[in-house]
């Protein structure tokens, strides 16, 4: 579920209290020290000032807040804790071809996303919906006036959290689906991994990677005999496919070895 929230471009010093007390107490830096909260929010924005302002607006509402300045830092946090809502910098989302938004929603379909942008055209909104957005909030007059309007930001976040999550539109690229499925498996999100594998099999049923990854998941969950069948089925599709052959040998000769999702498929 994706919404759009418009904010003005600003410098690091804009709208930030000069007090050092504000920076030190920021929950962005110590999210685990927050009190019991109803939701965890990850703020992904390139300017620290904006992250601090949003943190100060939202923390009093009882939310647990953490922050990241780029996609790499955001993904690291997503891997290590449950996030309910991501406030995502539109500029960061567009840093790679195809954007990060679709990948984010494919990996974490239960997450709601509020997109932050200094402006957003109709074309950009449509493109975001193609990547997985099913809704957005649009400021018809373009920009907030400084200072920020905390009540509006709190309302946007509350409405986003109250909406039922919806999975984003999946890619139809086989290799990308397999990579997304493997990332889900590494995070122990096996239900989503299986869904992605199913989509991959629809795109290329003749490829052995799908059955191999499904075998790894099955073996990890304790059904070794069924996993052996899946490895053999993958080799039936391509007898030269080494990952299936190596996992079959490992699973039959070393019963203590655990399947790994980091290996190349």
In words, what does this structure look like?
The protein is α/β, with parallel strands linked by helices and 265 residues long. The protein folds into 2 domains: 2-162, 3-Layer(aba) Sandwich (Rossmann fold), CATH 3.40.50; 174-253, Tetratricopeptide repeat domain (Serine Threonine Protein Phosphatase 5, Tetratricopeptide repeat, Alpha Horseshoe). The chain contains 12 helices and 5 strands. It has helices at residues 20-24, 48-58, 71-80, 90-93, 101-107, 122-131, 150-162, 174-186, 190-203, 209-220, 224-237, 242-253, and strands at 2-6, 40-44, 64-68, 85-89, 112-117. The chain has a 5-stranded parallel β-sheet, with helices on both faces. Helix 2 (48-58) links the parallel strand 2 (40-44) and strand 3. The longest helix is centred in the last third of the chain and has 14 residues, at 190-203. The protein is elongated and about 60 Å long.
Short descriptors:
single chain, 265 residues, alpha/beta, Rossmann fold, Serine Threonine Protein Phosphatase 5, Tetratricopeptide repeat, 2 domains, five-stranded parallel β-sheet, elongated
Number of strands: 5
Structural class: alpha/beta
Helix content bin: 40-55%
Quote the average pLDDT: 76
Topology:
Elements: E1 2-6, H1 20-24, E2 40-44, H2 48-58, E3 64-68, H3 71-80, E4 85-89, H4 90-93, H5 101-107, E5 112-117, H6 122-131, H7 150-162, H8 174-186, H9 190-203, H10 209-220, H11 224-237, H12 242-253
Parallel strand pairs: 1-5, 2-3, 2-4, 4-5
Short summary:
Helices cover 47% and strands 10% of the residues. With 265 residues, it is α/β, with parallel strands linked by helices.
């Amino acid at each position: 579920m994706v919404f759009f929230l418009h904010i003005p471009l600003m410098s690091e010093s804009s709208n930030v209290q000069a007090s050092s007390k504000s920076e030190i107490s920021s929950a962005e830096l110590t999210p685990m020290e927050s009190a019991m909260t109803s939701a965890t929010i990850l703020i992904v924005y390139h300017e620290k000032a904006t992250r601090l302002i949003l943190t100060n607006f939202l923390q009093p509402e009882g939310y647990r807040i953490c922050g990241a300045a780029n996609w790499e830092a955001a993904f690291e946090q997503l891997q290590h804790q449950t996030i309910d809502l991501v406030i995502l910098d539109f500029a960061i989302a567009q840093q790679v071809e195809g954007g990060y938004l679709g990948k984010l929603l494919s990996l974490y379909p239960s997450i709601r996303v509020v997109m932050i942008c200094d402006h957003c055209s109709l074309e950009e909104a449509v493109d975001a919906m193609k990547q997985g957005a099913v809704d957005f909030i649009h400021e018809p007059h373009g920009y907030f006036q400084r200072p920020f309007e905390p009540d509006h930001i709190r309302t946007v976040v509350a409405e986003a959290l109250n909406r039922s999550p919806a999975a984003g539109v999946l890619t139809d690229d086989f290799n990308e689906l397999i990579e997304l499925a493997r990332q889900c498996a590494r995070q122990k999100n096996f239900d989503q991994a299986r869904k992605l594998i199913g989509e991959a099999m629809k795109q290329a049923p003749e490829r052995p990677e799908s059955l191999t990854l499904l075998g790894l998941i099955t073996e990890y969950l304790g059904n070794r005999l069924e996993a052996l069948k899946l490895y053999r089925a993958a080799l039936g599709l391509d007898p030269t496919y080494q990952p299936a052959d190596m996992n079959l040998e490992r699973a039959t000769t070393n019963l203590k070895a655990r399947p790994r999702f980091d290996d190349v498929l």
